[in-house]
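Methods: holo model generation. Sequences were used as deposited, without trimming of termini or removal of tags, and paired with ligand SMILES retrieved from the corresponding compound records. Each pair was processed once, and we did not select among multiple samples. The sequence and NAP SMILES for this entry were:
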Amino acid sequence: MEFRQLGYSGLKVPVLSFGAGTFGGGNTFFKAWGSSDVAEATRLVDVCLEAGVNLFDTADVYSDGLSEEILGEAIKGRRNQVLISTKATFRMSTKKGPNDLGSSRHHVMESCEASLRRLKIETIDIYHMHGFDALTPVEETLKTLDTLVQSGKVRYIACSNFSGWHLMKSLSVSERYGWSRYVGHQVYYSLIGREYEWELMPLALDQKVGALVWSPLGWGRLTGKIRRNQSIPAESRLHKTSDYGPQVADEYLYKVVDALDEVAKDTGKSVPQIALNWLVQKPTVANVIVGARNEEQLQQNLGSVGWNLTKEQVAKLDAASEVAPVYPYWHQRQFAERNPLPSSQR
Ligand SMILES: NC(=O)c1ccc[n+]([C@@H]2O[C@H](COP(=O)([O-])OP(=O)(O)OC[C@H]3O[C@@H](n4cnc5c(N)ncnc54)[C@H](OP(=O)(O)O)[C@@H]3O)[C@@H](O)[C@H]2O)c1
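and the model returned the structure below.
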C-alpha cells in the first residue's frame, strides 16, 4: 500500500482508508447505510490490515456513537497497528441541549472525551471538526484543539466540509498564535462531484493541506449498479439516503457512468475501481476513504490501487465529468486559457 504525507505534517497515511459509516446501523438513516456488527467489523478490519490499509475513519454522529464503539471493539488488541480518525461538531440525535453541537470549547472537549471512551483508546490520531461553526470564534475552537494536542488526547487536527475562507481563516489564526494547524481537509470529491477542484484544491496546494476524500463513489452512485435504463437495486442504500448528501442530475450521472463503462472495457477493472483510481491520481489527494457494506465490496475497492489509469483514460473521465464552473472560477479559467503559461512553467 502506498503511503502519502498528510499535508504539512509528518504523518504518513495509506492512500486508501476505511470508512466506518456502515458500522452499527443505529437509526433509520445509518441502517440504510450499513449495519456491520462487531464480528463483521472485525473481519473488515482484518481485510484492511492484510492489504496494508491501517487508517479507519468514523465520527461521533455515525449511528449515534455505535460506529465508534464497534470500531473500538474491532481494533481491540491491535491499537498500535492502526490510525484512528474521528470527528465532532454535529449534534448526536440522543443529545438535545444547546451546547450539544458546534465547535465550542464545551462541546469539543466533551465530544473528544466521549469519543475516546467509546473507541476505548487513549489518543485520536486525526481529529476532525466535521463542519464549520460560524457562531463560535475560530480562536476558541483552535485553542481548544491545540490544548487537546498538547495533552496527548489528539495527535493531528483536521477539518471537514469547510469553505475556502473557513479554512484560510483557521490556518491564519493557528499561525498567528503558534497553535496546531489543520493538516487535512475531509472533502466530498468524486467523478460526479468536482467542485473541490475550484477553490479548495488550489488552497490545499498552496497551504499544504492534504485531502481525505469522503464518498468517493459519489454517495454510493458510481458502483456499476446504476446506469441508463437500469434502476437502483433493492438492497442499495440510495433508496433511503439519496435525499441527503450530494444531489446529482440523472443525465450527468449516466454520462459519467458511460465513460466509466468504456474505461472498464479497456482495463478489465470494475466501475468502482476506476472511479477510485481516478481520485488517487488527483493533486492534493492524500487519502480516499473507501465505503463498503460487506467484505466483497471492500475486497473489490482495495483492488483500485497498485495500478494507474493511463493519461488518456483520465482525460476521457475528466471530459465526461466536466461541468461549467460558477463565478469567479469561470472568469479565472478564461483568463488562464487566454494567457497560457510557457510549457517550462507548467
Ligand atoms: N466528512 C463527512 O462529512 C463525510 C460524509 C460522508 C462520508 N464520510 C466518510 O466517508 C466514508 C465513505 O463514504 P460513503 O460510504 O458515502 O462512500 P461511497 O464510496 O460514495 O459509497 C459507498 C457505498 O457504495 C456501495 N459500494 C461500495 N463499493 C461497492 C462495490 N465494490 N460494488 C458495489 N457497491 C459498492 C455501498 O452501498 P450499497 O451497497 O448500499 O450500494 C457502499 O456503502 C464513510 O464511511 C465516512 O467515513 C464522511
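Residues 3-345 form a domain with the TIM Barrel fold (CATH 3.20.20.100).
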